[in-house]
């Protein structure tokens, strides 16, 4: 089955620094990757849609300059949280796939900003 | 109109019992309705999904019931087991983009031995 890997699984960073999260499709090529955010005991909220070779499309209320998304290849998308603050602490989850074969979620990245 | 409302927020069921989680939506453009299971610290995993051309879909112990006119759908977990204890999310999307999901609020299920 389709496997989506996220790295790192956990990261702690200092307030004001930037952190990069990788999302990789291990055994398939993903034309589209989605980035979601999940606060503790809450639901998943879509942040942005990333198509390979194109600029990401951000959902309303998500700051594109703060959450930089790069989808440079069919197997890798990255989310960079710039100038992180404690309120950015959350569980970040990607999903990857194609319209024909569906989408698979990654294992998630727990970001803690101190 | 983009919301998906899920209930109950939490559910406790005895082993062997039936767990029932309900969802309702407003946007009639939604035509793909998946259910996900999520364990703590993990990403959600697809359990079962339905499209509105059928009223019920069953996969093993999991069944989705779909009521198009009421704009409601539900997940039934038969013969619930302690290993089913997790958080369950319903979701909805437009089939042209099944990766772009609107999630319900989630239901934390505890199955007691």
Structure description:
The complex is a heterodimer of chains A (114) and B (113). Chain A is an all-beta fold and 114 residues long. Chain A has no helices and 11 strands. Chain A has strands at residues 4-7, 10-13, 19-25, 32-38, 44-51, 57-58, 67-73, 76-81, 90-98, 102-105, 109-113. In chain A, strand 7 and strand 8 (76-81) form a beta hairpin. Chain B contains no helices and 11 strands. In chain B, a hairpin with a 4-residue loop joins strand 7 (62-67) and strand 8. Chains A and B meet through strand 5, strand 9 and strand 10 of A and strand 10 of B.
Distance between the termini of chain A: 37 Å
Class by alpha and beta content of chain B: mainly beta
Give the topology string of chain B: H per helix, E per strand.
EEEEEEEEEEE
Largest sheet of chain B: 6 strands, mixed
- Largest sheet properties of chain A: 7 strands, mixed
Q: Give the number of helices of chain B.
A: 0
Measured as a percent range, the helix fraction of chain B is under 10%
Low-confidence stretches of chain A: none
Mean pLDDT score of chain A, rounded? 94
Number of strands of chain B: 11
Strand portion of chain B: over 45%
Mean pLDDT of chain B: 95
Largest protein interface, residues of each chain: A-B, 23 and 19 residues
Radius of gyration of chain A from CA coordinates: 13 Å
Structural shape of chain A: globular
Fraction in beta strands of chain A: over 45%
Tally of helical segments of chain A: 0
Helix and strand succession of chain A? EEEEEEEEEEE
- Determine the oligomeric state from the structure: heterodimer
Q: In angstroms, what is the radius of gyration of chain B?
A: 13 Å
Can you tag this structure with a few keywords?
heterodimer; A: 114 residues; mainly beta; seven-stranded mixed β-sheet; four-stranded antiparallel β-sheet; 11 strands; B: 113 residues; six-stranded mixed β-sheet
């Amino acid at each position: 089955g389709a496997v989506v890997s996220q790295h790192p699984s956990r990261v702690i960073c200092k307030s004001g620094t930037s952190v990069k999260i990788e999302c990789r499709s291990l055994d398939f090529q993903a034309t589209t990757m989605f980035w979601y955010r999940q606060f503790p005991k809450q639901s998943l909220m879509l942040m942005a849609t990333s198509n390979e070779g194109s600029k990401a499309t951000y959902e309303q209320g998500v700051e594109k300059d703060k959450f930089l998304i790069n989808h440079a290849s069919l197997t890798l998308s990255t989310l960079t949280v710039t100038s992180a603050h404690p309120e950015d602490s959350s569980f970040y989850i990607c999903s990857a796939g194609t319209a024909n074969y569906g989408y698979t979620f990654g294992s998630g990245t727990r970001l803690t900003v101190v | 109109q983009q919301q998906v409302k899920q209930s109950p927020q939490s559910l406790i069921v005895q082993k062997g019992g039936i767990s029932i989680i309900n969802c309702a939506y407003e946007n009639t453009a939604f035509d793909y309705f998946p259910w996900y299971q999520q364990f703590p610290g993990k990403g959600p995993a697809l359990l079962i999904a339905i499209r509105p051309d059928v009223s019920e879909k069953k996969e093993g112990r999991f069944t989705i019931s779909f009521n198009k006119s009421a704009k409601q759908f539900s997940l039934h977990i038969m013969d619930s087991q302690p290993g089913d204890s997790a958080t369950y999310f319903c979701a909805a999307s437009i089939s042209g983009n099944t990766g772009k999901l609107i999630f319900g609020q989630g239901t934390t299920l505890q199955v007691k031995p």
